[in-house]
Write a structure and sequence with these properties.
heterodimer; A: 585 residues; alpha/beta; Rossmann fold; disordered N terminus; B: alpha+beta; Alpha-Beta Plaits; 5-stranded antiparallel β-sheet; 4-stranded antiparallel β-sheet; 5 helices; transferase (chain B); acetolactate synthase activity (chain B)
Chain lengths: 585, 180
């Protein structure tokens, strides 16, 4: 992967796309030039009336930027997210005004809660029509205010370079997030009054995230950690976003502190690492949840103590002193009060912290984890993986996929039971390998996000794990995938139910199954209709061959696996329960 | 409930008021008063927001949330005794023939309020002071009948001896959106 500087230099060498021009150009060309200057190689988009001038400009730049035509703007948004999550670059969407923009809303909301860098360029009616209820006019700035890291309306061509530079800076700096640029049609078509000149934005008066933490804060954290008898380290998405996986391992290996991951932190530490204790939260591991309430120092790195992680927060780690390392100051003390807050980038913080920590091994403490792990193995994992049920179990599919891909594939999970099963049973051995909608829980995320991820890093094997409900929310993106020809693999775990809702109705609503059973279409026929090959597996003895066939394909492939109709995901911290009350059944 | 005065310094751009107030909406905090004006530095606006809130922690969380808005340059939160504050109120009082005469001396000397406009059948009285002082005067003047009453909302300066704009980034650094 090229760094931003390298891509920019590459672009600079090409006369057609110099980031300085002597000729005057219109706003649309300036938009594309700005994207190229930022090193953008891919745009996920959908044209329409109010964005046509920009689409006309793209026509001239097809050798420089890969525009991917999605089938629905939400697909563009999730594809850009998947692209950003895997490549580490900013995902870019280009859509029209009104419905084009509102279709993007779910993906923007998803990106802000999961800290995904994204720049959405959205068409808008001409300046003189603003506020008149013109055709396809929506107040997109108003609508996206609470779900963007920043938004801005461009109404004249001259504004384009500065605003685009600011957009990319804000999207990627500090805690990343989505930025929306609403550009009126006149600003796209009118000529700039001065030659295009692109100056990168490196800081803003009102936005200067602290990367290097204050030394005294790191020292206070080190003192707490060094004094701990039963320290426990939790890491989240922030570790991956900071590229601090190596620094994290250095810390745990030096100190012997057991570490556990949030949903979005998964794969930052390989599951077979002896100091990796497992996954946290509602369907996380038995030991990690139970022992959260027994540790004496809890070290949270790059996470926001989401309610799916903490359970009842009034009974969450009350016995522990909390160290919270986090780049976003608004997250510190938001949910869990920190005794030693450290505001800064995870990588910088760990580099400063680890040298101050004493070597240790915490053997007795580790033994407690192992004890509870054994209980979980026996109660859940072994039975799930050696089932002799009539139908296949989701866990078997995921674990077999894990074995066949040596734990090195990129797993893109949708939202629901299959997501939790993917997180539980895939044995991640390589970092940056799990992409899912964590904070927003957006059904329909996986298919477009998996596609975007594959575009972001075509060298990696990308497998989407999708429920039958989720699949039908963004099923049209099969068309995008087919048109690209990229070998994106998707597995539908089909139980003909909205499985997680059904599980809750079974456990907490006296089995009153209210609108959770689906009459599904023939997914394979549909896929073939789109030009994507696939087949269905409904027998345990065919599962291995089925996965082999899917993985061997050099084209997009859909594997539908018919699974147990009413299986439940355990362990589980019931809603409102304490993490210590995690149930095995 | 405790009163808090939150001073927000921002760039002067479209929609910023909205970006700030939705943060209060989301946390269901009612804004008691809000004023916006340009500061001693050109291009920088100052919001003075008064809220009543039980928990200081919640106020601190809101302050941190406001700091996240990209155009926001600085946010300060104060208790009442940490600021010098005032507001202004205008009262439109009817003065029809034969009505009880206004005791201008009391209005001036006791309540430090001034008649700023004489209409044919009414006067407009201006009263500056704290919310309490304004309501004292309100109660005094009420028997005359009140045609219109409006308060400006609180303006406040901190009791710190430093200028708050000293905490802001240097002038040339925020002047980058030249087209505004």
């Amino acid at each position: 992967m090229m760094t931003r500087e390298e891509t920019t230099t590459a672009v600079l060498k090409d006369p057609q796309v110099l980031n300085e021009s002597t000729e005057l150009m219109n706003g649309s060309h300036a938009v594309i030039r700005a994207l190229l200057a930022e090193g953008v190689d891919t745009i996920f988009g959908y044209p329409g009336g109010a964005i046509m001038p920009v689409y006309d400009a793209i026509y001239d730049y097809q050798d420089h930027v890969n525009h991917i035509l999605v089938r629905h703007e939400q697909g563009a948004g999730h594809a850009a997210e998947g692209y950003a999550r895997l490549s580490g670059k900013v995902g870019v969407c280009l859509v029209t005004s009104g419905p084009g923009a509102t279709n993007l809303i779910t993906a923007i909301a998803d990106a802000i809660i999961d800290s995904t860098p994204m720049v959405c360029v959205v068409g808008q009616v001409a300046k003189h029509l603003l506020g008149t209820d013109a055709f396809q006019e929506t107040d997109v700035i108003g609508v996206t205010m609470p779900i963007t890291k920043w938004n801005f309306q461009i109404t004249s061509a001259d504004e384009v370079p500065e605003v685009m530079a600011k957009a990319f800076y804000v999207a990627r700096a500090g805690r990343p997030g989505p930025v929306l640029i609403d550009i009126t049609k006149n600003a796209q078509s009118e000529m700039m009054t001065k030659p295009f000149k692109y100056d990168f934005c490196h800081k803003l008066p009102g936005y200067h995230p602290r990367l290097v933490p204050k030394r005294e804060h790191v020292e206070a954290a080190a003192t707490l950690i060094n004094g701990a008898k039963r320290p426990f380290l939790l890491f989240g998405h922030g570790v991956k976003l900071a590229g601090a996986e190596k620094e994290l391992l250095e810390l745990v290996e030096k100190t012997g502190i057991p570490c556990a991951s949030t949903l979005l932190g998964l794969s930052s530490v390989p599951v077979n690492h002896p100091l990796y204790a497992g996954w946290l939260g509602m369907h996380g591991n038995y030991s990690t949840n139970r022992l959260t309430n027994e540790c004496d120092v809890l070290i949270g790195i790059g996470l926001r103590f989401d309610d799916r992680v903490t359970g009842d927060v009034t009974r969450y780690a009350k016995q522990a002193k909390i160290v919270h390392i986090e780049i976003d100051p608004a997250e510190v003390d938001k949910v869990v009060k920190a005794h030693a807050p450290v505001v800064g980038d995870a990588k910088e913080a760990l580099r400063m912290l680890t040298p101050l920590l004493n070597p240790n091994s915490h053997e007795e403490w580790h033994a407690k984890f192992k004890e509870l792990d054994a209980e979980e193995e026996e109660a859940i994992t072994i039975p799930e993986l050696s089932a002799n049920t009539e139908k296949i179990k989701m866990a078997e599919v995921v674990r077999m996929l894990s074995d066949k891909t040596k734990g090195e594939a990129v797993i893109v999970a949708d939202v629901g039971q299959h997501q939790m099963v993917a997180a539980r049973y895939y044995e991640f051995k390589r970092n940056n390998s799990f992409i899912t909608s964590g904070g927003l829980g957006t059904m329909g995320y996986a298919l477009p996000a998996a596609f975007g991820a594959k575009v972001g890093d075509p060298e990696r094997e990308v497998v989407a794990i999708i429920g039958d409900g989720c699949f039908q929310m963004t099923i049209q993106e099969l068309g995008t995938i087919a048109q690209s020809g990229l070998p994106v693999k998707a597995i539908i775990l089909n139980n003909n139910y909205l499985g997680m809702v059904r599980q809750w109705q079974q456990l907490f609503f006296e089995k009153r199954y209210s609108f959770v059973e689906l009459q599904n279409p023939d997914f394979i026929t549909i896929a073939r209709g789109f030009g994507v090959d696939g087949h269905t597996c409904d027998q345990r003895e065919n599962l291995s061959d089925s996965l082999d066939k899917m993985l061997a394909s050099d084209k997009p492939y859909l594997l539908e696996v018919i699974v147990e109709k009413e299986e439940n995901v355990f362990p589980m911290v019931a809603s409102g329960a304490s993490v210590a009350e995690i149930r095995l059944r | 409930m405790t009163s808090y005065t939150i001073c927000v310094f921002t760039e002067n751009t479209f929609g910023l008021l909205n970006k700030i107030t939705i943060i209060f909406t989301r946390r269901r905090i009612n804004i008691e008063s809000l004023t916006v004006s340009e500061t001693e530095r050109k291009g920088i606006s100052r919001f003075t927001i008064v809220i009543k809130e039980e928990s200081r922690e919640t106020v601190e969380k809101v302050v941190r949330q406001i700091r996240k808005v990209v155009e926001v340059l600085a946010v300060f939160g104060y208790l009442n005794d940490e600021v010098v504050y005032n507001e202004i109120a205008l009262f439109k009082i009817p003065t029809p023939e034969g009505a009880k005469r206004l005791d201008i001396e009391t209005v001036n000397k006791t309540y430090k309020a001034w008649v700023v406009y004489w209409g044919l059948e009414y006067v407009v009285i201006e009263k500056t002071g704290t919310e309490e002082e304004i309501f004292d005067f309100f109660n005094y003047i009420k028997p005359h009948g009140i045609l219109e009453f409006v308060r400006s909302g609180r303006v406040a300066v901190s009791k710190s001896s430093r200028s708050l704009v000293e905490y802001l980034p240097e002038e040339e650094k925020y002047d980058y959106l030249s087209y505004n």
